[in-house]
Amino acid sequence: MRRSFALAAVLGVLWHCGPALADAAQAVVFHPAYAPAPADNPLKGFVPYAGQGRKFPHSLEFSYLPLAAVMTGPTNFNWTPLEKLLDDIASRGCQSVVRFYLEYPGRASGVPEYLVRAGVRLRVWTNTNTQPLPPAPDHTPDYEDPRLRAALTRFIAAFGARYDGDPRLGYITAGLLGTWGEWHCHPHGEWFASKTVQIEVMDAYEAAFRKTPVLLRYPAGDGDPVYASNSRRNFGYHDDSFGWATLETGRKEDEWFSLARLRRAGPSAWNRWRVAPIGGEIRPELWPCLWKAEGCGRGQDFAQCVRETHATWLMDSSTSRALAPDEQERALAAARSLGYELQVLDASAVLTGRRLEVSVTLTNRGVAPFYASWPVHLVAADSKGRETMTEMPFSLKSLLPGMTGKSSVSLDLTRLEPGEITLLLGVMNPMKGGRPLRFANADQDRDRIGWLTLGKIVVP
Q: How many CA atoms lie within 13 A of 166 on its CB side?
């Protein structure tokens, strides 16, 4: 038996099996059933390193790049390494999370060679803050050198001019400053960039990137002793010790934990997730045990960390290893718990002549909004393959967790054949071959991959 639909007529509600007859002045009402959205919905979920984790569903991949790989002179850039990276990740239907760095323990310096030749100082030392990996050689530049500072702002401007809004690029973590681009030089805090340099970098990013989200490592308010205030800027944040140093403990020695820092940075930072994404990395010590039935026995409650941070994506290598079936299921549920989950609660269609008025009600069951400005499209398709499409006036980024939004549009059915009409709702990825946004409804992909079937009607 075909799925039942509700026909709300003027005098009451009747139930029909199969497509509902759309008569004038009658509203055909559909209530699509809930089903969990997939773990690899776009711009959210777990993020493996580029090329890894191929057996676990994901829509984002991460990679570091040394600034030296693309910057060859004060105003000279070779974007080939970045292009190859973005195209490689896009070939798997994924979008990229990218971070440029100047220093990375165990790797060659990321400072552009022309600056090294010009005499920018590099401190070569053994970095012991590399757990769980062994100590490794590091090359910390003089972040106050005006030649390096000029290079950073020129690079960011050129980076944004070429790549802001590029659909292959999902997120940027600001990077550039500190070990791994994580905005610290622990245990040598005295070597880290001054607030003046931090402000120059943040100003450059805000000017260069108006579309692609940029995330900072540490939230900071006006009185922060180390970091320039960023709480009222247009950045998201990334917690690179997620699940380990995320939740507040009340202990003074844990004041560097992510939520403790957010609270100290003030209400604007605390509520930043409402308008800008929260990302991060699951702490490596948790990778071997996080999805086991017995858990890790250390670290913090993962689900609570997700709820309180409103995290959308997390770098993770635990899902790049072989997982037992029960581990896989727990990891999939955790990946789905990140970010948005959009469900269609109901839809209605009213036919007047050859015009069909359609209303759709959406809700967000997730922990964060969908931050991109992708359009929502409605399609009416007949049995002969002809269709008409229009954009629905939804603003998905304004649909916060627990909120419901309703939009209505009018479709001209003049081009379509009388008979059965299928109504489809879709949010397409602007990246060629990218994963479409899929709704948390059982009839997602039922009649067309990437589209939710709202229902079927019969047009006289």
A: 20
Residues 114, 156, single domain; the answer is yes
Name the domain count of the chain: 2
Share of the chain above pLDDT 90, in %: 93
* Domain span including residue 398: 4-37+352-459
Indicate whether 111 and 252 sit together in one domain. yes
Residues 408 and 328 in one domain: no
By CB atoms closer than 10 A (0-12, 13-18, 19+), residue 133 is exposed
Residue 24 has pLDDT above 60, yes or no: no
Same domain, 52 and 21: no
Structure tokens at 210: 């108006």
133 plus 281 within the same structural domain: yes
Q: Please write the tens of the pLDDT for every residue from 80-117.
A: 999 999 999 999 999 999 999 999 999 999 999 999 99
| Residues 270 and 364 occupy one common structural domain | no
- Could you read off the pLDDT of 130-154 as tens digits, one per residue? 988 899 999 999 999 999 999 999 9
pLDDT of residue 132: 86
CA distances from 220 to 132, 202, 216 (A): 27, 13, 10
pLDDT band, very low/low/confident/very high, at 22 (cuts 50, 70, 90) = low
Q: Is the pTM of this model over 0.90?
A: yes
pLDDT band of residue 18 (cuts 50, 70, 90) is low
Helices in 289-346 by DSSP H: which ranges? 302-309, 325-336
Closest of 239, 218, 205 to residue 100, by C-alpha = 205
Residues 28 and 64 in one domain: no
**Cα–Cα distances in angstroms (integers) from residue 448 to residues 66, 342, 348, 444, in the given order:** 42, 18, 20, 8
Q: Is residue 429 part of a domain?
A: yes
Whether residue 364 lies inside any domain: the answer is yes
